[in-house]
Design a protein that fits this description.
By secondary structure, the protein is of the alpha/beta class. It has helices spanning about 40, 80-90, 110-120, 140-150, 170-180, 195-205, 210-215, 220-235, 250-260, 270-275, 280, 300-310, 350-360, 365-380, and strands spanning about 5-15, 20-25, 30-35, 50, 55-60, 60-65, 70, 75, 95-100, 125-130, 155-160, 185-190, 240-245, 265-270, 315-320, 400-410, 425-435, 440-445, 445-450. The two termini are about 40 Å apart.
């Protein structure tokens, strides 16, 4: 039996268009759009009708940077694939791309299989994987080719975290050369981890142990230096590069320069860098530990340059880097030593709403909102137009969004499995009302109607900005 749904009367917003249109969904996909009130729209028939009058009808969000159940610093990210994807749906995100981890001495395949086992049957929305490459050797390089063929087309490397995920310049170059051949995309955590470790050691020796020193030792210049080095290594390898969680204006300048030179270099930032700052890291009574993440929060003056980068397309994507650790029992592992605070913030539920607030505040346009949160991440990671837009043939991942509803963000009301909100008390305008994933209602008028196991694994093609 085929199933049909019609969404009537809303303003359909994609990265390229805004139109008052009715949307017909059939068997999990967008079947047709027609201008509201026209004979074509009135001819749409369906078992289920959703009234979107006065609301936006937008594509489901694509969060291309999450870490569910990630082991880090002797503990695990507090959201499972079940709780994390449910929270994502509450926030209007219908696809996540999470990071499978290769352990040093193990194969990529073992890491990928481990993450498949964590996610399968547990996700409320669709999901895909990037691969963290921690151990570059001849076998790893061969495996990269095989993973690209099966739809894992992006590989993350770290210039930070010596002894854990760190790759040296030679290992990075070899992986980049391989990706230049196999069509994969290298994603880079660009911070000079060797230099940072020296500064950490010196700070602790001086008795500087509070959370705020996390931001002070991870200097913006060391993010910029690593970004520059990654860009030039990619240039030598003839490979594209995607720099994750860009936080510093100096790093944005490196990306802008490379793009002005015509390089295939892309940049991502996150809501925490757009809305939070070192003021949060400096909160008293160890509260600043809630905001410890890497790259770190920066002084407020960096925010204007990040917004500018999003407007000028020197930054293309806003992802969350969702990696939550509870304040009690997890963040507290770093009391007396900021270097032991697990790095990461919760945010998968907040991204769409915070970026809509940026529309309200005049930082970006409505179409740019959809572009950086839905369409570009889908294109960047080989899922467009199946994901990231509302068009005939696309998956019916659709959000009915009330642009006028007001809310106050709080740990009391969010759905992430973490005991604090990074945005506690923040008032925002705009709220998700109903979410469809492949045509099935996951959130229905602010009630959760989805279930674990609805979400399916989504293999990806290569970066669609390089074809």
């Amino acid at each position: 039996m085929s199933s049909r749904t019609v969404i009537r009367g809303g303003l359909v917003i994609t990265a390229s268009d805004e139109i008052h249109a009715d949307v017909l969904i059939e068997d999990g996909r967008i079947a047709a759009l027609a201008a509201s009130g026209t004979p074509a729209a009135e001819a749409f028939t369906a078992e289920r009708a959703i009234d979107a009058t006065g609301k936006y009808v937008i594509p489901g969000g694509v969060d291309a940077h999450t870490h569910m159940e990630l082991p880090f610093g002797g503990t695990f990210a507090s959201d499972t694939f079940e709780t994390g994807t449910r929270a994502a749906a509450w926030g209007g995100t219908t696809t996540i791309v999470d990071f499978a981890v290769q352990s040093v001495g193990r194969t990529l395949r073992e890491g990928l299989d481990t993450w498949h086992a964590k996610a399968e049957g547990n996700c409320a929305i669709d999901y895909a994987f990037h691969m963290i490459v921690s151990d570059v050797n001849d076998e790893t390089l061969k495996e990269m080719d095989l993973l690209v063929e099966e739809g894992v087309t992006s590989f993350k490397q770290f210039m930070a975290y010596p002894g854990v995920f760190y790759s040296d310049d030679g290992q990075i170059l070899r992986a980049m050369q391989r990706s230049a051949d196999n069509g994969g995309l290298i994603m880079m955590h660009a911070e000079n981890g060797i230099a940072i470790d020296v500064l950490v050691e010196q700070a602790l020796a001086r008795g500087e142990t509070d959370p705020r020193y996390h931001g002070e030792v991870r200097k913006a210049l060391l993010e910029a230096e690593a970004t520059h080095r990654a860009i030039r290594l990619a240039q030598v390898a003839g490979a594209p590069l995607y720099v994750v969680h860009v936080s510093a204006m100096e790093a944005v300048a490196e990306l802008a320069r490379a793009r002005d030179e015509g390089r295939h270099v892309f940049g991502e930032t996150c809501p925490q860098y757009l809305f939070l700052s070192t003021d949060n890291l400096a909160e008293p009574d160890f509260e600043g530990a809630k905001y410890v993440c890497s790259t770190p929060l920066r002084p407020r003056e960096h925010q204007a340059k990040l917004w500018q980068g999003l407007r000028t397309n020197d930054l293309q994507v806003v992802s969350t880097d969702h990696c939550p650790f509870c304040f009690v029992g997890q963040k507290e592992l770093g009391r007396g030593d900021f270097s032991k605070i697990p790095n990461g913030l919760p945010g998968v539920e907040n991204r769409i709403d915070l970026l809509h607030q940026a529309v309200v505040d005049g930082h970006i346009s409505r179409r740019r909102w959809i572009e950086i949160a839905c369409a570009t991440p889908a294109r960047m990671f080989g899922m467009y137009p199946k994901k990231g837009t509302i068009a005939p043939g696309a998956d019916a991942d659709v959000v009915i969004y009330d642009p006028h509803a007001e809310q106050v963000m709080s740990a009391q009301t969010h759905h992430m499995n973490v005991d604090y909100s990074a945005y506690e008390g923040r008032r925002t305008t705009g709220r998700v009302e109903t979410v469809l994933s492949r045509g099935e209602p996951v959130i229905t008028e602010r009630e959760y109607t989805g279930h674990a196991g609805h979400g399916v694994y989504t293999p990806r093609s290569t970066c669609q900005y390089l074809t």
